[in-house]
Design goal:
This protein is an alpha/beta fold. Helices cover 31% and strands 15% of the residues. It has eleven helices and ten strands. The two termini are 27 Å apart.
Length: 410
């Protein structure tokens, strides 16, 4: 799910909770950097490992979805169509603005203020993030694994060769609206995304994640579907078009390379519900997340769901397993960290929640921000529910020095 502020409806978390469940990476799912080659004779220089092969067809397909032209491949034949030309130009401009006004400041800030968390984090867990891969990888670029979760379906990639020009135009019209709204606000609105997906032109989150991967300059090595198996593990199969959506939870795994690197990195997206009634201890999702290696949790625009008891299973798991938690006030309430003696650093400014959310004011967090003894640091970028007023807050919590919870054995 993408935690968000619905435009036309107030949240209805008690009945049909807009939440997403997390998928988790097991021992087999977490890729590590390849071991260095064995040393040869002193007179011979060791050769670097060869990079994994890029899936050229998939990489080119996602680049076209991102509005980036290719020198060869089937998309060249469609790149002259007015709809794609307009989409490409609009996305170039929107991405340039977004990168300059948000991501550039975020990169600079994270180098200084997230230095130790970035060094220690092996897995970034981003509940309620939906397909927002852009901010996740900007804040934690060296994490080998990123886990995104949302209510939105994974979906199918468009088969452009089976679409006529009019249907391709419909796809890029909807894709432009989805991406453009995120590049303006810095978060997705779940109900708006679901409305767009229901039109059927953009079928789900996979196309949006692909948009970010290519706009960030990465190369795609492979895409695999994920389904829970009967024994509680996760079954991976090569990407293919699905005639019907699976029942939640299910997901997708994308392996990619950064420019000039040979080490695989992986982003997972899981379509699932993480309310207590669906997210139970012992479930495939729970076990998968409990096995994440050295996880940091990141939450923004989280609809205050982690304030409520019907999300206590996820909240408890975050507190038990995370090395660090980086969040705004819409995530785990401040009091839970204080009760467990986490080391806390505050950034930005605290303001009362926007009118769409009630009974989630945090007087103790407000007092911490106002305490003259607090070392409240500046936050030089904006991305949350107050993007219009640019009053944002983030809290970095480092777990206390105590016995680390043992991962679930699968």
């Amino acid at each position: 799910m993408i935690a968000d502020i619905p435009r036309r409806h107030k949240p209805r978390w008690r009945t049909a909770v807009l939440v997403a469940a997390l998928a988790v990476l097991g021992a087999a799912g977490c890729r590590r950097s390849p071991a260095p080659p064995a040393a040869g004779p002193a007179s011979e220089a060791a050769s670097p490992p060869a990079p994994p092969a890029i899936d050229r067809a998939m990489d080119e397909r996602l680049a076209f979805i991102a509005g980036l032209s290719a020198s060869d491949g089937p998309s060249v034949a469609w790149a002259g169509e007015p709809a794609w030309q307009g989409f490409s130009k609009a996305m170039d401009e929107a991405w340039t603005r977004f990168d300059g006004s948000v991501l550039a400041s975020m990169r600079t800030w994270a180098v200084k203020d997230l230095a130790q968390p970035r060094e220690r984090t092996r897995s970034l867990f981003y509940p309620f993030g939906g397909p927002d891969f852009a901010m996740a990888v900007t804040l934690f670029p060296d994490a080998p694994v990123t886990v995104l979760i949302g209510l939105e379906p994974v979906g199918n990639l468009p088969d452009f060769d089976r679409l006529n020009e009019s249907l391709r135009a419909d796809f890029f019209g909807d894709m432009g609206r989805l991406a453009g709204e995120f590049l303006t606000r810095g978060y997705f609105i779940t109900m708006d995304m679901m409305d767009t997906y229901s039109e059927g032109h953009v079928d789900g989150a996979l196309s949006v994640i692909g948009f970010f991967l290519k706009r960030l300059g990465f190369s795609v090595v492979g895409v695999r579907r994920l389904l829970p198996a009967a024994d509680g593990s996760w079954q991976e199969t090569p990407y293919e078009r699905l005639a019907a959506r699976p029942h939640r939870p299910y997901g997708v795994r994308i392996d990619y390379l950064r420019p000039g690197e040979t080490s695989l990195r992986t982003v997972y997206y899981f379509s699932c519900d993480i309310e207590n009634k669906a997210f139970r201890e012992g479930s495939a999702l729970y076990r998968f997340f409990a096995g994440l290696e050295r996880p940091t949790t990141f939450v923004k625009a989280g609809s205050y769901l982690l304030h409520w008891e019907n999300f206590s299973t996820l909240r408890r798991l975050i507190l038990d397993r995370s090395l660090y938690v980086l969040q705004d006030d819409t995530a785990v309430p401040y009091r839970f960290f204080k009760q467990q003696d986490w080391t806390i650093t505050l950034f930005g400014r605290y303001a009362s929640p926007v009118k769409d959310f009630t009974n989630v004011e945090q007087p103790d967090l407000r007092a911490a921000y106002q305490d003259p003894e607090s070392d409240v640091r500046p936050l030089p970028f904006h991305f949350g529910y107050r993007w219009r007023t640019q009053i944002d807050n983030l809290m970095l919590a480092a777990r206390p020095h105590r016995a680390y919870k043992v991962p679930v054995v699968r």
